[in-house]
Amino acid sequence: MKKLTIVFVVLLSACATPSQRFHQQAQDLGLISEQISSEIFQHKVYFAKNLIEGGVLHVYLDGDGTPWERRRWIADDPTARNPLILRLMNQDGAASILLGRPCYYGLSHAVSCDSKYWTSHRYSKEVVDSMVTALNRWLAQHDFNEVVIIGYSGGGAIAVLMADKIMNLSSVVTISANLDVAKWSEYHGYLPLKQSLNPADMIGINSNIKQIHFAGKEDEVVPSFIIKEYAEKQENVKFYGLAGKDHSCCWDEDWDDLLELIK
C-alpha cells in the first residue's frame, strides 16, 4: 500500500502544471501567496507568513521561465520549471517577497493575458507599467523604509526598467540578466523582440539608486560581456563576473555570500 501511495503521488506530480509545481514548492518553503491587480493584469505575490515590516524589503523577480516548448511551440504556461528564485529567496534573511510577472504562476489564462506577454512583449511597456503599479500598490499597504529589487535573468531586465518608478528604492540587483535585449537576440540569432523595451536604450537609472550586476563567466544564455558592457555605461554601479557560474548553476550555492555584497 505504501508503494502504491508513493507511485500515486509521483503520478500526480508528473501531471501537475508548472504553476502548480511552483506553488507547491513555495508552500513547502513556508510561503503564502496573494494576488494584486494593476489596471491591466493580475500578479501573484509570494511571501513568508511571518513577514516582518519596518526595515528593508527585498523584492525578487523571476526570469522568463519557459516561453517556448522545445524552441518551437509557445508554452501554455511560462512559469519557471526550475524554481531557482525560490531557493535564493529562501536563503535571504531580509524580509522578502516574490512579485510575479503578468500571466505567470497560474494566471496565463486570465482574461487580459495573451502569449505575447511571455514572448514578443515580455518586457513591453504594458508589462513593466503593470509590475510597477502592482509593486507600488503592495508597498502602499505595508510599512518598509527601503526597497531592493533583485531580478534574475529576464526579471533583471524588468527590474532595471522598473527602477526609477518604485517607492523608496535604494538598489537594483540583477543576476544573469538580459540587460541588452537587442544584443542578446543578435548573439543567439533570435528574432528581435521589437515589442519589448530594452534596458540598454534607457538614458540611465537615477544615480542615487545603487546598481549591482552579477554575471556568470560560463553563462551561454546571457554571456557576461553583455552585462558588463551595460554596467560600464551606468553610474553608481558594481559589476561582478563570477567564475563557475552559468545561467542557472550554481547561484544558490553562494547566495549567502553574494547577499553580503548587496548590503
Provide keyphrases for this structure.
eight-stranded mixed sheet; two-stranded antiparallel sheet; alpha/beta; Rossmann fold; 263 residues; 8 helices
Helix content: 25-40%
Globally, the shape reads globular
CATH architecture: 3-Layer(aba) Sandwich
Main sheet summary: 8 strands, mixed
Percent of residues in beta strands? 15-25%
Name the structural class. alpha/beta
Radius of gyration: 18 Å
Provide the CATH top-level class.
Answer: Alpha Beta
The number of helices is 8
Taking the alpha carbons of the first and last residues, their distance comes to 51 Å
* Major sheet strand order: 1-2-6-3-7-8-9-10
Query: Uncertain spans, ≥5 residues at pLDDT below 50?
Result: 4-13
By DSSP, the count of extended strands is 10
**What number of structural domains do the residues give?**
1
Q: Please identify which CATH superfamily we are dealing with.
A: Alpha/Beta hydrolase fold, catalytic domain
CATH topology: Rossmann fold
Helix and strand string, N-terminal first?
Answer: HHEEEEEHEHEHEHEHEH
Mean pLDDT, rounded to whole units? 93
